[in-house]
Batch of 2 targets.
Target 1
Amino acid sequence: MKRAFPILAALTALLLAYAFYEAMWVAPMERTMGDVQRIFYYHVPSAWTAFLLFTVNLVASVVYLIRRNAKADAVAVVCAEVGVVFCTVVLVTGPIWARPVWGIWWTWDVRLTTTLVLWLIYVSYLVLRRFSDSSQTPKLAAVLAIFGALDVPLVYFSIWFFRTQHPQPVIGGGGSIDPRMLHVLLINWLAFSCFAFLVCWARYRLEWLHREAEEEEALASLHGPSQ
Amino acid sequence: MSSLRSITLATLTKDIRLEWRSRDAINSMLFFSLLVVVIFSFSFDPNAEESRQIAGGLIWVAFLFAAVVALNQTWARELRNQVLDAYRVSPAPANALFVAKALGNFILVSLLEAVMAPLFMIFYNLRPLGPAWQLIPVAILGTWALVVNGTFFAAMSLRTRSREIMLPLLLFPISIPAVQSMVEATRIILAGDGSARFWIVLLLTYDVVFTTACLALFETILQAE
Amino acid sequence: MNSIKFLYAAYIATWLTHGFYLVSLVSRYTRWRQMKVAQSSGVYVQNHLVFAILVTILCCLPAGVPAILYAAQVNGKLQAGDIAGARTASKKAKMWCWISVGASLAGGLVYLLIAVGVAGSTSR
């Protein structure tokens, strides 16, 4: 298991490099936006990966509440952290893309705002984890994850309706996509998913190391303050 | 079922009686609300036409801050007297405690709003151009939305460091759709432009979803302290 | 086209964000390692390994290499029981890290002065 990690890391690095090459040179130039549109190939896969990670966090949280399985809780923490990192990338690349194309840094459009709220909810999740010292932190965090999941559809709905009342340019546009662009998009998504998986794996191992160290400390202090 | 109601009622009346006997907390919160209104009036110049557009947002932000101040001391009395431990070992359903607390907070925050709203109307010279009666369901549903989640998150924050900052940190992101609905509905009613029906329905949905979630998960939280 | 800068900025920002997170993971791991070593030897000595790697990549490479070499010795010496040696290696590693930072700052300052000087002289 441990030997697989460097091999997978090397493969993922190659895949990321290939995906970068595709995004920069192979993908056709967009008619209206020009080369800046290539940000799309980093922005959208990061968003999909972040949402996937948050979904895994939700599932792990529910599993933890039902079964009190420590591994589920570790998976939840890991996915929340890495998800926040990818979500940050989305929120940073979004405005960087919007500025040259639509002239504005930010707009309260449905997707960007929902991503922002999701980011806020999960940052508050991580803060709760850090500030809560009790052994029941996993339970509290799991409940917060469920509340967040219930909230997101409501957020989406409310902003969607708000937008129909106050229309503004939609960032990222809708509509059909050139199959060659879709191909590059999917390659980048595959590369970033592998990258996310590796980072999660590393973080998961680190989490287990920390938990074992805490257990040892607890046991050591139980056996008497010899020092 | 009747025991749930009687326990809830007993807890609620006990809380109200205790609050009434030492009115310090309520008085200081009322004064805080007044200060918030005055500061907002200085910061956002209440010139008639624009004020109607932003008043919806201002009034609810002011209510939000007042609500957080009220919510922060929700469980303080219980903590001081180990009431929560007593509840955990008693056969009383945890939901009774939660509903009683939430209702108590609802009454308190509504009281604060009843003081602040007329002041806002006066300072900003507001006259609702739309159907004014709709402001009542907006106020009730909106306040309940803040209070139900606020009471729940206050319970969650009990064992955390920096308890007072933890509550707004958890509450604000989750409350975003509710706050947007309240603000939009109030703005529409005050400016008389369009129908606030969608926002009222969204507020109702929010309330139903989160009240159910809080009732379902409060037992878990209570055991977690 | 000026908007190309935004394209590069976006890609760089993406990798910077991921980079920050990965560096935080590595430093959390080294801190865990140091705790383990401290538990077995009873003494806690910082190895500055992450700092050394960062300054080698970001600041001055020639000064960063001795920093990394000394930092890598610390844990080994601790485990072998040579606490004084570990402390000296740790101090030397830290010194070379700061030398690297200082060298790159000084280099940057010199570059700035020359650039301003050249700009001043050509504008006349």
Target 2
Amino acid sequence: MVSRIVSLAVNDREQEFIVHPGMSLLTVLRDVLGLTAAKRGCAQGACGSCTVLVDDRPVPACLVAVETVEGASVRTLEGVGADGELDEVQSAFLDDFATQCGFCTAGMIMTAEALLAEQPAPTRADVVEAISGNVCRCTGYEPIVTAILDAAQRRRLRDGRPA
Amino acid sequence: MLSNVFMPSSAAEAAGLLLDGGWLLGGGTVVMPRVNTGAVPVSRLICLNRAGLTGITVNGGTVSVGAATTLGAVGADDRLSFLRPVIRSIASPPVRNLATVGGNLFVAQPYGDLAVALLALDARVEVVRAGGTRELPVGEPVDPAEVVSAVRFAVPAGAWRYRKAMRRKHNSAAIVTVAAAVTVEDGLVTDARIALGGVAPRPMRALAAEQALVGAPLDRSSVEAAAAAAHEGTAPFDDPYASAWYRARVLPVHVRRALLGEQ
């Protein structure tokens, strides 16, 4: 078996670790680096609970063989917000009661972060499309969609854009 | 159990590695679920994402898309805006950031909607094998020792139609997929290429429907004749999304709606 040393910038910090062939990014994050926000749901890219950003794009971490993204930059929920403060998406999820059991929350927030980085003023339909790969089995989609729209508005206000 | 994941730097190198067996790994959306459960019957994966196979070039009306280009990159390219409805009908944005154009040619029905569109576009597929490169029409079998390196097609000069019937508005497999490129000159259809997904083991051309259109105006009466002919050669199947009966029943409806641009 050919194991390899792989390095990634995870939440702006260089990390180096040994991986077995085919080890997923999700396994590395959770079991090697101890970053357990991304959840292991379906392990087949269907539930979205492991969504993280790889080079700023949201992807299901369970579908990424980590040795194939050597050198990439990875952002997880642990890398969102600064100095222990929640960012706009996190605080909107809190204020708008957008979490129930919480299993989908990390993936939902990372998907929302990617959406808002690209589209600061999404419509409701844009949000629904963006989270179409993130399953909430509590079926609490309405408050999640509302929270993402709320977060977009908070961020526009922060950035001095038209609300 | 996997023993190695190779990262070739070219399609030729990948094809050389393939001679000793293994699976090609594109975006991982098909292979990684099996890796995650240990259900991989091979010991070697040959990954294509550093093989120089990404990128889209548009020269005049001719498009060449590297096989490892993601569906997300195709959907974000303004020069290929006619394909945006196709891309947006496939899976979810995070999965589209991984899934590749080349991989979509090999996924089982009722997935592979881009492959359906490429069939309607009369795309050509470039494949590399140890010691050579060849080009073949999309849909023709590729040898197990070959690596798809690119797909090429012309931006449709005439009308382009796409419709995918699914259980939900987003992120669902096809009940029926219809893609069509139709050229109308002096009020009559001179060329029609209609491709179907979800109604056979592979994406297929609806040749009888095409014949019903050519020479006629693109109006309700000829489109209804084409829709009625669309079942010829289909072999609809049951799956968790729909029954074969239902697929056969709604196929003409979606062919008609696609060709007339109806909602």
